[in-house]
Amino acid sequence: MRPRVAVLGATGRMGAEAVAAVEAAADMDLVARLGSKDSLESVVDAGATHVVDLTVPGSTEANVRFAVEHGLHAVVGTTGWDESRRGRLEDLLARHTGVGVLIAPNFALGSVLATAFAATAARYFESAEIIELHHPDKADAPSGTAARTAELMTRSRSEAGREAMPDATESGLDGARGAIVGDVPVHSVRLRGLVAHQEVLFGGPGEQLTIRHDSFDRASFMPGVLLGLRTVASRPGLAYGLDAYLDLGA
Q: Where are the alpha helices (DSSP H) in the chain?
């Protein structure tokens, strides 16, 4: 069936890009664009089959719950989906078995690949840290992409039997060593002029590997959003990370 798409958060920068991308796609229709004050019921009234949620962490769970309860597939780019929220969503999806939901910390295909490469590299290096750089209007730190990358790297290190990373720091200012996500230090930079950037640094005896991805424009996220919309209905249940829809050999 041809997706009939409603974009939530359509007045934001990401939402506006999504509206334009869906309108330009020949194989789907944009049927609703909602701002923060619009009623979710208008999504149903418009006959939507798919929802794109690009709102804020405080409203995303309620938005996605509404979509699932009304049989609408959801593609979600809003951050804040910790394990407890994902657990509640999985319980809900178990009662709505035909509905698919994709939650993607990042929709840029290059970023998804960089995270996958970092997870693979993590098992081979003694030390690893993440630096993520975003515009100063970003509400969360660290970014959802950095948290996802650190989570996968930690899992990879654990599976490889890696010991704790060496660090002889005995004193320091709060936050100087970054936030520890899993067992990976993550450092967040917020600067005007940036969009979304991430470096993963790996160190071993006598060498360093850097995996970096840069999004210079929010248009870089749209191929992933459209991939999600084209795929989610065929993947009932919850998928976390766009890598679930890519053949990465993992």
A: 13-24, 41-45, 57-69, 83-93, 109-122, 144-159, 222-231
Residue 177: the pLDDT is: 95
pLDDT at 249: 60
Is 70 catalytic? The answer is no
Provide the pLDDT for residue 80. 86
pLDDT tens per residue across span 61-86: 999 999 999 999 999 999 889 899 99
Residue 204 is assigned to a ligand binding site: no
Q: Find out whether 98 is annotated in a ligand binding site.
A: no
CATH number assigned to the domain covering 4-103+219-245: 3.40.50.720
Ranges of each domain in the chain: 4-103+219-245, 109-216
* Cα separation, 250 vs 113, whole angstroms: 12
Q: Give the residue ranges of DSSP H helices in 123-232.
A: 144-159, 222-231
> Which pTM was predicted?
0.84
Q: 78 labelled as ligand-binding?
A: yes
Question: Looking at the domain that runs over 109-216, which CATH code has it been given?
Answer: 3.30.360.10
